[in-house]
Prior knowledge:
Chain A is of the alpha+beta class. In chain A, 25% of the residues lie in helices and 22% in strands.
Amino acid sequence: MLALHKLFVQGIYGQLYRLYRWYERPILGPIQPESLSDQWAASEFVRRLRMEHADWLQVLHDMDAITANSQRSLYYSQKDVTNLVLQERLIAYSLGHLGVYNMGDYPIINAPQGVKYHFILASLLLVSEADEVKSFRNEWQQAAAFIEALALTDEQLEQLISGLNLRAGPNRADRIKSLQIAFAMGEIAVVITRDSVVVPKRKGPEDLPAEYYSPKPYTLGPHEEPGYVPPENRHSGLHNQAALAPDFNTSAESFKTTRQVDMKNLSPEDDAAAEALDDQGWNKDKVKQVLKSGNNFTETPFNPGDKLYGFNTTGRPRNLDNSAYLLDEASMDDVKSKYFKQGHWDKEGVKDYLALPCFNQASTIDVMAVTKPATGIQSTIGKATELLRYDGADGYTTGTMGKIMGGGGTQITLDTSALK
Amino acid sequence: MPNTKEQRLDLIENCSLLLEGVLKPFSQTDNTAAGRMITQCQWLKERAENHDLPLPVKEGKLGSLLYIYTNGELFTADSTKEEIHDTEVKMQRIIRLAYEGQLLAKPSYTPYTLRCIDALITLLQTAPRPLSPYEQGLIPDLGQLKRLLDEGKIEPPLGAYKPQYPNFIKAERSIRDIPNGKDYFYTVSDLIFNGVRPDSWLTPEDADRETRNL
């Protein structure tokens, strides 16, 4: 029976795959999708999955690729699924021949204050929900630093090597190296769990206080108490690493939305959205970019005093008057519910969900109020891609990487005169 | 699509104006919008100077410019209205040159722009069906634009249709069923609001030839 909340399918040779639909929450961490960018590879991949025709029809229907009553052969359904794969609306992640799907069956290292480090095969992240994950794909130095900080005993090291089924020589250095390689190759990850929330003591401001924008402030406890120390940002992902800065100098190839529009031959839906954006006072170049950045355009009313928000890099508060990509209270609450965990923003998650370009560090939030009754154009943020590189102060670099941001958040474009 | 020396020189000029103007106080860094915009302008300028910038430039190479422009990322509460307008015009010109590969509308082409406006007015006045209220309102709007342009009181690109010219918004959709309506409308709209001239107007002589019999 096919369960559409998470889509797992088996290949004819026994491998298990998760098929990830573009609108699902982005898969974070070290896992890389199958490389299926050419027609032949995608077609062969789809053909070699153990799927009943009815299951494919259900997938296509779920992805709005066919209507519910479509009469078609398996051949054409597989062809349609192949197209979804080629369009990256359906992305395949391999779980290999993974036989153990219970996180509890993998080794655990206990740390002070009730913190537990579950060392798991990274592909298990495709199966399990985990709020806090550490992974170090291509991050050799960070992996080494993390392992060293754990100060593992020989017994614990043996527990990890055997529990994760890693190959390693008999001596300690070999085993640590093996662990580091597995991290850097993206084969393993660590899920962090805590027995209970420890209320920290305040010493300084948090790096991005939710109280700054929200009428419903986030709280972990008595923040005003002297001595408060904010918890460390433990979210995974390069965008969450304070010591790393994005660097495009070696490549001007950068942020790009994937939706194509021809302003002089718009679809009826896009033409209606373009007319509404014209009505709001945006010029054609901005209208085109808004259309390219999202879909499902609908109107939503705003009243004087309603708040609008925009993520930004700390240091130079923006005037949102000229911004065509804003968040309202509901869309900000949505982002917060997904990516504000344990006192910190998961900036990598925010970046993916809102399809932010890399120069936006998502480290502060600008806010402004609507000045008069107005109609906003609400849209679902579409997918964007970029090539980028992160550099550390010590000469460390990730090398140039391709990144796909799934989008999925909701953005608002408001009448320019209602913001001034 | 044209790929001319004039476009490259215009690109160099507009990038230089941003680098020496609104971007001058900032350092080149890739984790702020202003810093990233410096990288973008320098890259475009150097390529154009080295005759290594085929137009149009791929979208992926212009992502920062397009995002920063659309999201108004360069402006703070201290930015004046004039500064915002001035900066957005330069960014819009770079977008039209590099991203769309178009030719800028310039004063030397004003006489031919006026002919296009006249042609659109005539097309509306001789339309084979009754005009909508917006289309009727467009005729005096076009007359006003023609006069202001002729007197040198406006300089393209004007930007959005609204707030001064709301009839353009509705007429853009309705005029399409009038023969030549779409072409004439977009030619005038591009010349006035988007600040670009038709691809075939490589020189004023070309523009003269193409508009003489409109």
